[in-house]
Amino acid sequence: MASRQGGSGDAEPLGPGSTERRTASTTAAASREDDVRPRSPPESPARRRERAGRPDRPTDYRSVDSANGGEASARTPEDPPVRDPSLYALTDHFRERLEQPGRYVSTRTVSDAIRSGQLRWNNTDGWRFALVEGGVRFVVVVSDTETNSPVVVTGWTEVADREAALEAPRWDGVDVDTIAVRAALSESASTPIPDRIRPRAVTRPFEVGAHRLETAPGDPFVRCTDCGCRFRSKEGITSRRCRQRSSGR
Q1: Confidence of residue 151 (pLDDT cuts 50, 70, 90)
Q2: Nearest alpha carbon to residue 184 among 211, 224, 221, 129
Q3: End-to-end CA distance of the chain
Q4: N or C end of the chain: which has fewer CB within 10 A?
Q5: Taking Cα atoms as reference points, which of 7, 12, 186, 157 lies closest to residue 95?
Q6: How many Å apart are CA 152 and CA 3, to the nearest integer?
Q7: Burial grade of 204 (CB within 10 A; 0-12, 13-18, 19 or more)
């Protein structure tokens, strides 16, 4: 399945990632999370068939959630994914996102979404888990769910209820505006969104592509704190290299 922002990459085990605000102490705490797979899963049979040019076909993989007392049962991509976070691995694509400031996604929120989030099928991404906490919706996209090696492909946050988010002790105004701006940029990468950026105040830079971005109330753009470039769309951000960061300064 395709992710919302590019390919999935190679899968790695579901291990410690960022907390909502990454610090040395919270990173150390994240390493003690329980829902961790001890090793990387093998390449799935579905991916091997695709790489070899063989047409897809109904699989006979063993279900990891068999309702028959552990007896084997066939699964298909249309079957709802299992809700055991320990069975999922992370793709490189998603693991990189865990390291970026302003993502507000952690392995804990991924595990919580898989266990108890709302499950929906999306024609673009496939299966999604969505969990709302403190006015913010955490969305987790999974793939290879018909196999014994399901993976978390990508994930993001959205403001589900702005008033509830601003009242929640988990977030402050900058957090909520950061989530809102990032989600707005991603909705339609090629579309300029000055009117959706203008009301927001983002004083702690968040990363998109090679740029560290912030914005002030009234500004119809986000500005890279390193190179000074101004952007009104995500396509503009991702299509331009950051001169300061690429030069090592």
Answers
A1: very high
A2: 221
A3: 38
A4: C
A5: 12
A6: 10
A7: middle
CA distance 47 to 63: 18
What is the average pLDDT value for the chain, to the nearest integer? 78
Q: What is this structure's pTM?
A: 0.71
Joined together, the tokens standing for residue 1 give 């399945």
Asked whether the beta carbons of 37 and 11 are under 8 A apart, the reply is no
Nearest-CA neighbor of 211 among 239, 184, 188? 239
Whole-Å CA distances, 64 to 71, 74, 140, 178: 10, 10, 20, 38
Of residues 63, 68, 93, the one with CA closest to residue 80:
63
Tell me the C-alpha distance between 112 and 131, whole Å: 8
The answer to whether residues 179 and 118 touch, using CB atoms and an 8 Å cutoff, is no
pLDDT tens-digit readout, 66-113: 343 343 468 888 899 999 999 999 998 898 888 788 899 999 999 999
**Backbone torsions φ then ψ of 208, nearest 5 degrees:** -135, 125
Could you tell me the strand order of the sheet in which 151-159 lies?
Answer: 11-13, 89-91, 151-159, 136-143, 126-133, 118-122
Tokens 């331009």 belong to: 240
C-beta neighbour count of 64 within 10 angstroms: 16
Q: Is residue 201 exposed (0-12), middle (13-18) or buried (19+ Cβ within 10 Å)? A: middle
